[in-house]
Amino acid sequence: MLEKDFIEQANNLPQSFLNAMISDKNIVIYGGGAACLWYVEWLRGHGIEPLCIIDSDLRQKGSYIDSVEIKSMDDVEREFGLYNLCVIIGSPKYKREISEILKKWKNVPVYSFETEIYCNFIKDVKMYRKYLLEHYDELDDVYQSLADEKSRETLDSILKGRITGNQDYFSNVMTLNQYFPDDIISLDENETIIEVGANDGSTLIELLDRLNRKYKRIYCFEPDVKCISIIREKIEKEKDDRIIFIPKGAGNKEETLYFKTDTEKGASRVVESGDYDYFIQVTSIDKEISEPISFIKMDIEGMELEALKGAEKTIKAYKPKLAICVYHNQEDIIDIPRYIKSLVPTYKMYIRHHNYGAAETVLYCV
Q: Is the pTM of this model over 0.85?
């Protein structure tokens, strides 16, 4: 189990980077993939504008990511020189490959650390350390309740990664087959499934392939009608009335939630009804579904605990296999396992991590 001394004292790499920065440094990000956006946002959040983005794919040269131009290494060296340059690796998945490429710039400092978690889930590392220390007994309770050593190692490594920003803690425990790890989740032709947060249908398609189209029924909760239309197009050839769409969000009760869009971050937050950009209708699993359920998957941007509370009767009655995301809120990795265990004490609980960065941590219960 993670020691208290580590929680209190372990060095945070992003903070060390900020402490080391000299104001006239030219900071560039290497890696023009999706993860790059978090590095741009994190730097700007600390008053730093990246000079440019470097990408090995020369076809990207001259294009922009969030108003930051993509250039080649040769362009950067020619236009800006290397004297005041430093590089942040902006693609955790290709950290080793990028590090090898950057050896060409022998005296240019290279930094690698996690940023997405500090943009989305943990705004203040000091407060997160305090939270873990204040809830250390509950955290230890979750740790002790996990069913295998791999889960305990994964939990330990995830927490270290969150505290330090060191991507290695995440990549070292990263596994494939998100939501369907072969060593935990077994599905057959008798499944009645609930997918909460169907999004663009990618998980549904994978599910259909894994089941070879042999199952009883699949319920998809998705409040965005545009997403439902996309999914319908993807599965049009299925002509399958066993897939049932519920165009609502899943929560603890029937209600309307109002959201305000943050255009800079491309994210939304719940607000009061007076000032909003859009709204969704929310219902509960217990209200919508009355038949026996064998598997529930949830990925709903931090609303998982409320949706689980709205599925209390279903979970107690049928003890379905569960695959629940536990990374959207800093409390989830403690609160969600403890809540599920209170409903079904006999569940075996596992934690797996499915990303080279901080996102995509999933709790499995069987």
A: yes
User: Which helix (H) or strand (E) segment is 323 a member of?
Assistant: strand 321-325
Cα–Cα distance, 105 to 357 (Å, whole number)? 25
- Give SS3 for 30: strand
Cα separations in angstroms, 58 against 62, 163, 336: 9, 36, 45
Phi then psi for 185, rounded to 5 degrees?
Answer: -100, 120
pLDDT, block means (10 residues), the chain with 366 residues: 94 92 83 90 93 92 94 94 93 92 94 91 93 98 98 98 96 96 96 94 92 95 89 84 93 87 54 76 96 97 95 98 97 98 98 95 99
Question: How many independent structural domains does the chain possess?
Answer: 2
Backbone CA torsion sign across 314, 121, 169, 89: positive
Assess contact for 187 and 211: CB atoms under 8 A: yes
Pairing mode of beta strands 361-365, 349-353? antiparallel
141 domain-assigned: no
Q: Give me the phi and psi of 277, to 5 degrees please.
A: -100, -30
Nearest C-alpha neighbor of 148 from the set 321, 366, 327: 366
Position 48 in a domain: yes
Compute the half-sphere exposure of residue 82: CA atoms within 13 Å on the CB side of its CA. Answer: 12
Sign of CA dihedral 163, 166, 167, 171: negative
Alpha-carbon gap, residue 216 to 211, rounded angstroms: 10
Task: Please report whether residue 38 resides in a domain.
Answer: yes
Beta-sheet strand order (sheet of 243-246): 243-246, 217-221, 192-196, 295-298, 321-325, 361-365, 349-353
The percent of residues in the chain predicted with pLDDT above 90, rounded, is: 77
Q: Which two tokens stand for residue 343?
A: 């409903």
The reply to whether 183 and 76 lie within a common domain is no
The kind and range of the H/E element at 110 are: strand 110-111
Phi, psi of 147 (to 5 degrees): -85, -15
CB count within 10 Å of CB 290 equals 10
Q: 3-class DSSP state for residue 194?
A: strand
3-state helix, strand, coil in the chain (%, to 5): 40, 20, 40
Compute φ and ψ for 112, nearest 5 degrees.
Answer: -140, 120
Domain that holds residue 264: 176-325
